[in-house]
Amino acid sequence: MLVLFSESLYNSLLVFSLLNILDIITTYNVVKKTSVESEANPIARFVMKKMGVAGLFAFKYIMMGVIILIGFATNNLEGSMWINNIILAGVVAWNSYQNYRLGGEK
Fold it and tell me: What is the 3-state secondary structure (H, E, C) of the chain?
């Protein structure tokens, strides 16, 4: 049974939301310093080419919804969140490294 109001689920959703905000910020900063071509995800790159920063936000929020729907569909929302959080923490760390490396450019 899917528990919708547990402290652990609340914490995983909070971390999920914060990591997605950090991903948007760090991705935007890397793209601003380089180009849209530096985006590794081909779907996100395509959306950003067509819609700019608004596309980045739209893509992120659609993907957040997809992750949550997968969690509901598999009856493991909390597990889905934590798996995504681990992957997204790596993405944010990579973006942060790229921002640090590119700090003096542009």
Answer: CCCCCCHHHHHHHHHHHHHHHHHHHHHHHHHHHCCHHHCCCHHHHHHHHHHCHHHHHHHHHHHHHHHHHHHHHCCCHHHHHHHHHHHHHHHHHHHHHHHHHCCCCC
pTM exceeds 0.90 for this model:
no
Do 24 and 57 touch, CB atoms closer than 8 A?
Answer: yes
pLDDT exceeding 70 applies to what percent of the chain? 92
3-state secondary structure 58-69: HHHHHHHHHHHH
